[in-house]
Write the structure tokens for this entry.
Amino acid sequence: MTFHPRYFLTTSALAVLMAMTPASAKTFRIAVGDGPGGTQEELGKAFIAALEEKSGGEHTGRLFLNGQLGDEQATVNDAAMGTLDMSILAINNVTPFSPTVGVLTLPYVILSVDDAEAITQGEIGQELIDNTIRDAGVRIIGWAYSGFRVLTNSKQPVETVDDLQGLVIRVPPNEIMIETYRSWGVDPTPLPWNETFTALQMKVVDGQDNPYMTNYAMKFDEVQTYVTNIRYIFSIEPLVVSEQVFQSLSPEEQQMVLDAGQEATAHSGRFIRERESEIKETLAERGMEITDPADGEAEFMERATTAVWPKFYDSVGGVEQINKVLAALGRDPVE
């Protein structure tokens, strides 16, 4: 039998490559809901860099941006079934699967990035991780801190609750967020994340809320003009790994994944502090008109906390859990 020289060289190169690549090397598929330039991508990139460093290049990851692997809630299902390795998504899209994490989306609970870090990286955060493993079949291994979900719309400036009336606002399919808008006299329109830009573009809805970083990453300035600096939810976006996938790893690999997630979390805190003001200025330069709510947001806050919190005490773990969170933040309890 005669071997063609080119064929021989190709197979030889392949043999060398196979010898250099460990049989156990893994490339984790990571779903990302947002586009490039936001905190979700930044968390993913930081996680991959840390994992590669800790594994000596043996393990890595690949980001699939803009919902290429499905909408955010669908990726939780896929990860739970073990058909997807990891996902980075908004915490409100984890809540339907593990209701206790809804404490992070109750309006006006978290009032700063410091609050977000204190809760997610402390005892309460570990409880939420354990609950999510139990309830949803996914494990939170990292946290992205994306900033407050400011309100945007294409029709008019909004400074008061009255200004909201008549606007059609998109919200995620999340009961806490839906009830918050209802407390402001608005019946919002729940839409999956991957349908939101088109709905704004086609004027099916007038507005939505998301952090400055997400508005920038998703280019919402192309379809939205007015921004209101409400602070009802501080957006926290976890990196989750399929618990089936996690348990298939060796103890050493599991620790690498956990350590890489911790490093990525720390990076995210630095990133939001360094970049949010710059992104806000960029959006203003592109034509977005930014206003603050009247009276220090007092009416928004009063309506939301009195009407919404009691409806979700049971689902998030009871009044005791709310007070535990408030105590951790140095705030007064509710009765």
Notes: The radius of gyration is 22 Å.
